[in-house]
Amino acid sequence: MSQVRLTIDGKEVEAEMGEALVDVIRRNGTYVPTLCYPGKEQGCLGTCRVCTCKVNGNFAASCTLPVSDGMVVEADTKEGKNIRKAIVEMLFTEGKHNCPSCEKSGRCDLQGVGYEVDMMVSRFPYRFPVTEIDDQSEKIWLERDRCIFCQRCVNLVKDEETGKKIFNISNRGGKSRIEIDVELANRMSEEQALEAMELCPVGCILRKKVGFNHPIGQRKYEVKSIRERALEDAQATAEPSVS
Q1: Residue 1 has what pLDDT?
Q2: What's the pLDDT at 215?
Q3: Running along the chain, 243 residues long, what does each successive block of 10 average in pLDDT?
Q4: DSSP symbols for 64-131
Q5: Where are the alpha helices (DSSP H) in the chain?
Q6: CA Rg, the chain, in Å?
Q7: Would the CA dihedral through 51, 84, 230, 45 be positive or negative?
Q8: Count of CB atoms within 10 A of residue 21's CB?
Q9: What domains appear along the chain, each with residue ranges and CATH number?
Q10: Predicted pLDDT at 43
Q11: Do residues 116 and 226 lie in contact, with contact meaning Cβ atoms separated by under 8 Å?
Q12: Which of 4, 94, 154, 204 is the most buried (most CB within 10 A)?
């Protein structure tokens, strides 16, 4: 693959053409949060916008942009940080996120990102939406209070036999919500159900008989912050340079 040169916060860097901009920014030491972006292997979704940076003078979600030669990026700026913080605050106000009682506290990406953007309380009024739990499946259930509509589950969790989507979207606009195809969900293996629960960046997808009786796992962000993990992952998955 060919190399391109771009400027990130005044520093000229090299990257492989076509790499996601957010990965390049992180690899060069600047933390930009993500919630819908599961990593380069799965591709971008561009639904949460918390990775917003200024690119060539315009704000854009950096997970959706492949790097190109001559690109000028402003990521570590006061204006960009405030925009990302505002988006995170809106995500908190659009749901009902009671972190102390949530099964995924300490492993929740939204919670971890909230700490990293220095959110104390949202500047926006809380909506306190009325939602319904979906517990029709034998193996998993949806705690819709916590859903941030990142759509990771819709795009990445599929029936292993048919390739059909297990999760889908109903309605439109503010009434949109994630639904489960119960028949397909009941066919999920134990491993796939646990993977879906881990894939969800919040505590919306829960494995039945696991969510309350047993901890989902170690509280990984108490051992290493979401910022540290993101920057380390960016270094570990970097493409080897081409001479």
Answers
A1: 63
A2: 60
A3: 91 93 95 92 88 96 95 96 97 92 90 94 92 94 95 95 96 91 95 93 90 61 82 78 44
A4: S-B--TT-EEE-SSHHHHHHHHHHHHHHHHHS---GGG-TTTTT-HHHHHHHHTT-SS-SS-------
A5: 21-27, 78-94, 109-116, 152-156, 182-185, 190-199, 220-223, 226-236
A6: 19
A7: negative
A8: 27
A9: 3-76 (3.10.20.740), 87-214 (3.30.70.20)
A10: 78
A11: yes
A12: 204
Q: Which two tokens stand for residue 236?
A: 């570990």
Closest C-alpha to 30, from 10, 56, 47? 10
Two structure tokens written together for 171 = 């309605």
Q: What is the dihedral of CA 34, 36, 41, 42, to 10 degrees?
A: -170
What are 136's two structure tokens?
Answer: 């029709």
Tell me which residue has tokens 């009902």: 96
Tell me how far apart the 2 most distant CA atoms of the chain are, in Å.
57
Residues 6+ apart with CB under 8 A from 229: 220, 221
Tell me the residue type at 25: I
Q: Tell me which amino acid residue 163 is.
A: G
Sign, CA dihedral 136-141-146-148, equals negative
